[in-house]
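User: Hi! I have a protein structure encoded as tokens and I'd like to know what sequence might fold into it. I'm fairly new to this, so please keep things simple.
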């Protein structure tokens, strides 16, 4: 990672895709502070089995956990098995998940993934990264969540928009590609922390390090964050 001089950004603009100074040497200190700030950082999606977690996670793209939980409260009563989703009328499924956004693609992917789960895995959600990412609509982020939360298998770190933004601003990665960001964070973190890093950074991104107007004045790691120079001039 090359250390470059940061450009000034207008206060009303989000942080741009220029290089933030390399701050990997401060990872342990930053992580300790964030872990203490969010000791109970856990996913807030409601589910009772691996299939429900898979569906909820696919639906959660570009939506909020609160909204997804509202939708899945009835959805999970109507569709209880992979066979139910595989045999669902596509238009009806679209209506059932309409309020989650991007409902056409989500419905198509859920139905197609369920068909594969039925045909290749006997109706059970697969338990490996390779098999999960081969399902329609399932990338490494979703696969990491399902493996960790449903099966206790820690393969890596789920990288969503919050994790991407926060890890870049903290100077832990210079990449924008989620898989490269995941590799950078894995290289910095202890294995026992991999499961909690994603949700901790998500919490911090939602509550403090927001996209357009980060709340640096209340940030517990502002003195260790190279982006504070840009946002508050510290």
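Assistant: Happy to help. Inverse folding works backwards from shape to sequence: for each of the 234 positions I chose a residue that suits the local structure. Here it is:
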């Amino acid at each position: 990672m090359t250390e470059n001089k940061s450009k000034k950004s207008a206060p009303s603009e989000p942080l741009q895709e220029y290089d933030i100074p390399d701050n990997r040497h401060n990872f342990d200190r930053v992580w300790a502070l964030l872990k203490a700030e969010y000791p109970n950082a856990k996913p807030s999606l409601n589910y009772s089995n691996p299939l429900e977690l898979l569906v909820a996670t696919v639906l959660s793209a570009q939506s909020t956990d609160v909204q997804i939980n509202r939708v899945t409260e009835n959805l999970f009563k109507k569709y209880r098995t992979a066979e139910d989703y595989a045999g669902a009328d596509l238009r009806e499924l679209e209506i059932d998940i309409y309020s989650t956004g991007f409902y056409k693609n989500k419905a198509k992917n859920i139905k197609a993934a369920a068909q594969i789960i039925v045909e290749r895995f006997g109706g059970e959600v697969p338990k490996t990264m390779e098999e999960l990412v081969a399902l329609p609509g399932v990338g490494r982020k979703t696969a990491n969540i399902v493996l960790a939360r449903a099966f206790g298998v820690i393969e890596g770190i789920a990288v969503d928009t919050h994790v991407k933004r926060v890890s870049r601003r903290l100077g832990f990665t210079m990449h924008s590609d989620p898989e490269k960001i995941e590799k950078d964070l894995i290289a910095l973190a202890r294995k026992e922390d991999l499961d909690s890093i994603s949700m901790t950074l998500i919490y911090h991104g939602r509550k403090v390090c927001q996209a357009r107007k980060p709340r640096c004045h209340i940030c517990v790691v502002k003195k260790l964050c190279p982006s504070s120079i840009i946002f508050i001039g510290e």
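A useful reference point when you look it over: Residues 48 and 150 are 9 Å apart (CA to CA). Feel free to ask if any position seems puzzling.
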